[in-house]
Amino acid sequence: MVDNTNGQTPVDHNSLRLSKPKSTAAGIPAVVSSGLHSMKKMGPIKTIKTLKMVNQKAGFDCPGCAWPDPEHRSAFEFCENGAKAVADEAMRANVDRSFFAKYSVEELSKKSDYWLNSQGRIAEPMYLKKGETNYQPISWSDAFSLMSSKLNSLDSPNRAVFYTSGRTSNEAAFLYQAFVRMFGTNNLPDCSNMCHESSGKALIPTIGIGKGTVTLEDFNHADTILVIGQNPGTNHPRMLTALRDAKLNGSTIIHINPLPETGLVRFKHPQDYIKLNFKSTRLADIHVPIRIGGDAALFQAINNIIINKKKLNQHFIDENTSGFSEYVKSLESIEWQRTCRDTGLDRELIEKIADICANSKSIISCWAMGLTQHKNGVAVIQEVVNLHLLGGHIGRTGAGLCPVRGHSNVQGNRTVGIWEAPSDSFTEKMELGLKHTMPRKHGLDVVNAIRAMENNQVDFLFCLGGNFISATPDTIRTSNAVSNLSMSVHVSTKLNRSHLVQSSEMIILPCLGRTEIDVQASGPQFVTVENSMGIVHTSQGQLSPASNKLKSESWIVAELAANTMPDLPIDFRKLVQNYDDIRALIADCVSGFENYNQKVRQDNGFYLPNPPRDDCKFETHNQLANFSINSLPNVDIEDNQFVMMTIRSHDQYNTTIYGLDDRYRGIKGNRRVVLMNPDDMLELKLKTRDVVDITSHHNDSAIESKHWIVIPYKIPKRNVAAYFPEANELVPLDSTADISNTPTSKWIICTISGQNSTSEEE
Ligand code: SF4
Fold first, then answer.
1. Ligand 1 atom 2: residue of nearest CA
2. What are the residue ranges spanned by the domains of the chain?
3. If we measure between CA atoms, which residue out of 494, 542, 546 comes closest to residue 42?
4. According to CATH, what is the number of the domain 5-21+635-756?
5. Whose CA is nearest to atom 8 of ligand 1?
6. 82: Cβ below 6 Å to ligand 1?
7. Which numbered atom of ligand 1 lies nearest the CA of 54?
8. pLDDT tens digits for range 314-336
9. Considering only CA atoms, which of 11, 36, 2 is closest in space to residue 663?
């Protein structure tokens, strides 16, 4: 039986192949997988030529995650998923006018995300007018006059929204925010709103900066590393090398995650074979199979034990922090019964972890979406900060906080101004540098932008990269909101679902990829990006563009600005003739970028200032690191309910589906699966491969999603997991984190009804 569920992966039982999860990450299978993906998409010659340049000093930055490059690069300085990301971008430009003539939008919308992505690069600008069935080619100049006349016809600049995906370079992102603010709005939502916004909102009031405070070198000096709500084996694979090295230096690694992810079990660095070293390395000493949502209770319990054991860095607390005694008092009400219920863990295990932390000289805590995409995302991250303040594990070698960014330049985008809620000091410096007034009223983040579209308060959406429809929550509701728009524009490299959800007029602008040569009037240009460790470095495209009709992101933004506001004090067209001029302007407008062009040409680029890391200084309201007091969230659910979290497979990068093989978890051939605890399946009288419907619940609203295949998996009871973007349709738009407004993609209350199970109804 095959049934397409609004273009998502077909529910074809026979396509699903299940096997035991892998116990070792990377190794030869990663080399084979990288090779197969690359050969299929680039062919042998281009594969060798291209992969040799990834993450090399004179090469281009991997368009995958934001894990930093080591000072001394190896000849093959990329991971399996980095190779897939590069191969995916380096495909031929087959998606041209003949492709769009062959396939109507209606037909394309029935294709899976995997199929859409595998069609190749978009070759030329395309235009779709309401009522028409197929995209038509359009010239760049006609596209810009359509967009600029639409923008200039708006009743208010705030009826336009300018979205950014984290792949955009610093240069393009800076020009973009400059134009948008000069246009008169702060409507600059970005993918950060859906991922590490909770990290920024937690860290700024507590340590004075919304970024991590460690370097790659620190991993070699940490005696305890906590990996919390993160799956580096798939989402930041080169981090496994840092963990292996830390392990070999005697570090203890604790993996806190509902799922026993292969990446933290054992790791085999493929290049070790060259040294005839065939042994793999065990990484996590302890896997903590915590219940979804139990992290705050866990860290409050750990911190309470450390306080009661008086295992404190009192000097650090006295000299550098505020709020310690109030925090100690707030933990007095902790009860073990609640702690064990909320975490799903035994007291003994929690005490063991607390002991390890209490006796650690230096702790690094790494986290990702498993902490940020919760209603209490900000609060739980602040509990992790509290742990670090108790032991003074910040601002010294081997110790610190490490939110690991999943998008290659998402941190850089925010640093140069992609933010709907900039601080006044940031805006004032920008006004001085750009000699133009800037709006003060904060703009719309992603969730609020969708609400505004839904209420017809927005007419124009411009997406600089990304896949807005698939990356955002509540897919059906978001699609309906987007269809209210009079124009939506997508700057893209590959075909995706956002191109198929119609607003009155739609324009696709194909841009150069990170791997491709970007020639402007002054010659070939390099761009710059910022990784998770706050290092800004160069990336220079090396491949011939997939089509001669592609333009760089910076050029596209400059043309949009010049067409829409030809009389601006800044000559955008002149700036993109030589990106050094953009960087010189950034140096005038953004703190930390002084002498940008000189510093970024240094080997390995340069570190942006980071007071907690650099000088153990905290630029908070009181110039101290602040303990935070947060009440525990209610993680209780009804007897017939489950908590779902969305996850990535090993064969995808964000919403880009490279393949259907989640190799590490042993799930192949189909993505419309829900991972469930075998005991829960028994209780619901469900068997492996049974098909169920899932309904998510939030306040009084419910969203039903049909045809999910149940598979048994090692996950805590009453917790389930499913892949995004497919499961994003179940994430209620109104279910967001406090303070950060990040969608709670890791906390979705749902009920599950079997199509042939006899459970619930009875
Ligand atoms: S770890 Fe991240 S940045 Fe590095 S090669 Fe892999 S995907 Fe790319």
1. 65
2. 5-21+635-756, 89-193+412-528+548-591, 197-408+622-626
3. 546
4. 2.40.40.20
5. 82
6. yes
7. 5
8. 999 999 999 999 999 999 999 99
9. 36
